[in-house]
Amino acid sequence: MRSYVISVGFRRSLWSKPLFALAVASATFLLAGCDKPAQPPAASAPPVTVANPVKKTVTDWDEFTGRFDAIEQVQVRARVTGFVMGVEFKDGAIVKTGDLLYVIDPRQYEAAAEQARGQLADAKAKVDLAERELSRAETLVKTSAVSESVVDQRRQTLSAAQAATMQAEGALKRADLDVEFTKVRAPIDGRVSRHLVTVGNLVQGSESGATLLTTIVSMDPIHVYFDMDESIYLKNNRLWFEGKRPSSRDTANPVQITLSGETKPSHEGAMDFLDNRLDIGTGTLRGRALVQNQDLSILPGQFARVRVLGSAPYEALLLPDTAIATDQSRKIVFVVKADDTVEARPVVLGPLDDGLRVIREGLKADDRVIIDGLQRARIGAKVSPHPPAASGGAKP
């Protein structure tokens, strides 16, 4: 504190000693308050967490929205007309090929089969008679006992009897089929729907208006269909020409399936079809994959996220998504330089891989990237960098 000399323009004789001392102290205090205040200490560099990008061999995957569909699906219809006598399955059950589903009253068809069987026996008897008569005529014609015309007539009678026998055999086969069709059986393995006709109802078996009884869809394996846009098709086609990715037209490229409510793939499959043209209305190409469904948890019509192999394995640098900021239309990361100042680095992003984001361009393996404390970092300002608490580079 500075010292000042105070001059009081009054005569000391007019002041008492206490008053004079008080005036001098007050003046000294007021003058001391005019001094310039001291500067606060400089702020320290804010702490941030930095890590090097993770170097890893990754594979790109193209992701689409897909829908499951059964490989085989059958509408089970009546093939004969009659009254339903029994429903032999439980709604929604798994059935095997040949399992009995419905029983239609067979009595009229069994009677028709017996009639056809009798007609066949009659036709065969006529053939036997015609053969014996022809044999006698051929013997007699040698002795001129009968004319050649008689032999010809008996040959014609034998041919007619043989033709009638063939017709009777066909009628019997048809009648036996009708009897067989009264027992409606599952044509494929799969899950059956509910029964659409109950006992006592009349069903029609005509070709134009056959009654629908139920439906069956196959369950394992199952198809998943998805649509890819033209740009992805062109990218994959270019990779195929360059030898970096096999074509799904002739190679069962791997597929990963993520169901609704899941955060990571739970099923695997393989490509087995690409359409031969793009849809001119949507500009997309239809693809299909075959997926194993041994636990029967997937149903036809269900949605899923489909990941299809999109590249060959390659070396890449990866960072947590939390280390990436947005500057208008570009993505940036904050890199701490050798002098501990912050630099904004534009980057080109790739897909996610095991929770980390692939950085295609803009980083080097030895860059120190701020992965925590972005809100405290200022471009060009110094920071106090620290490694992450857990080892493993940029792993979160």
Largest sheet: number of strands, sense, barrel closure: 9 strands, mixed
CATH class of the largest domain: Mainly Beta
Named CATH topology of the largest domain: Elongation Factor Tu (Ef-tu), domain 3
Q: Helical element count?
A: 4
Which percent range fits the helix content? 10-25%
Q: How many domains make up the 3D coordinates?
A: 4
Radius of gyration equals 47 Å
From the N-terminal CA to the C-terminal CA, the straight-line distance is 56 Å
Q: Which percent band covers the strand fraction?
A: 25-35%
Computed structural class: alpha+beta
SSE string, helices as H and strands as E: HEEEEEEEHHEEEEEHEEEEEEEEEEE
**Corresponding CATH superfamily of the largest domain:** Efflux pump adaptor protein, beta barrel domain
- Overall 3D geometry? elongated
- Architecture (CATH level 2) name of the largest domain: Beta Barrel
Describe this structure in words.
The protein is an alpha+beta fold and 396 residues long. The chain has four domains: 1-38; 48-57 and 314-386, conserved putative lor/sdh protein from methanococcus maripaludis s2 fold, CATH 2.40.420; 61-70 and 219-309, Efflux pump adaptor protein, beta barrel domain (Elongation Factor Tu (Ef-tu), domain 3), CATH 2.40.30; 106-181, Helix Hairpins, CATH 1.10.287. It contains four helices and 23 strands. Strands 1, 2, 17, 18, 19, 20, 21, 22 and 23 form a nine-stranded mixed sheet that branches. A six-stranded antiparallel barrel has the order 3-12-15-14-13-16. It has a four-stranded antiparallel sheet with strand order 4-11-9-6, with no helix packed on it. A hairpin with a 2-residue loop joins strand 18 (325-327) and strand 19 (330-336). The longest helix is centred in the N-terminal third of the chain and has 34 residues, at 107-140. It is elongated, with a radius of gyration of 47 Å. The model is unreliable at 1-25 and 29-34 (pLDDT under 50).
